[in-house]
Amino acid sequence: xxxxxxxxxxxxxxxxxxxxxxxxxxxxxxxxxxxxxxxxxxxxxxxxxxxxxxxxxxxxxxxxxxxxxxxxxxxxxxxxxxxxxxxxxxxxxxxxx
Length: 97
Prior knowledge:
Layout: H1 3-16, E1 23-28, E2 31-36, E3 43-45, E4 53-57, H2 59-66, H3 72-77, E5 81-85, H4 87-92
Parallel strand pairs: 1-4
Antiparallel strand pairs: 1-2, 2-3, 4-5
């Protein structure tokens, strides 16, 4: 799965999900997806802004998680996924995947 496919999937899920109550920055290799869930809807952009929660991983690890080949908790515990900021908000982001 390439970055555009992942970004399109996140945009589609963001439109169907109620606002998450915070801001997220998802760093996939050198690509960024920014989700602002503080308003009446989740807004997705590719801006490199400050966020309440920053999740960093590789495109391959993200693809593996989306396909169910990698457990997100195990990926975090083994360092394949790094989370900074509000862990409660990070858990809400799973609904986007």
